[in-house]
Amino acid sequence: MLLEENKKNKKNNMEVCPKCGLPKEACVCETLEKAKQKIQISTEKRKFKEMAVISGIDSRTIDIKKIAKELKKEFACGGTIKNNKIELQGHSDRIQQKSFLRKIQEKLKEMGFSAEVIE
Ligand SMILES: [Zn+2]
After folding, report:
1. Which of 13, 18, 71, 117 falls 20 to 30 Å from 4 in CA-CA distance?
2. Crossing angle of the two packed helices 64-75 and 94-110, in degrees rounded to 10
């Protein structure tokens, strides 16, 4: 009996957004959250290596690990998450690095974020 109840709760959790109470298909919470975040893409130098750094993602509302994973997959590069920032392995070449940042921006926009490149 208790097991049945648990099953039912689990099912409900999966279907209804805890924030707005709407069914998941109708919920736009994540979309709104993504658009609200001010994401910045810039470069940082670490031991002679240029990193592309994506900051401004609120990990309380957005699954930052998922974003990092998707970016790493898209660009076939290494990366880590540090202090709520995604660091992606960049290019040593300055011009290449610049176009890399633009590509990241495009990808983030595709994912529903508003992102800007800081130069
Ligand atoms: Zn919602």
Report:
1. 18
2. 130
Q: What is the pLDDT of residues 66-119, one digit of tens each?
A: 999 999 999 999 999 999 999 999 877 888 888 999 999 999 999 999 999 998
Q: Can you list the domains of the chain with their CATH numbers?
A: 1-36 (no CATH), 37-119 (3.30.780.10)
Taking the centre of ligand 1 as the mean of its atom positions, its distance from the CA of residue 105, in whole angstroms, is: 26
For residues 67 and 83, the answer to whether their CB atoms sit within 8 Å is: no
Counted residue by residue, the chain has a size of: 119
Q: What angle do CA 63, 69, 75 make, to 5 degrees?
A: 135
Measured CA to CA, the distance from residue 78 to residue 57 in angstroms comes to: 19
Specify whether the CB–CB gap between 38 and 13 falls below 8 A: no
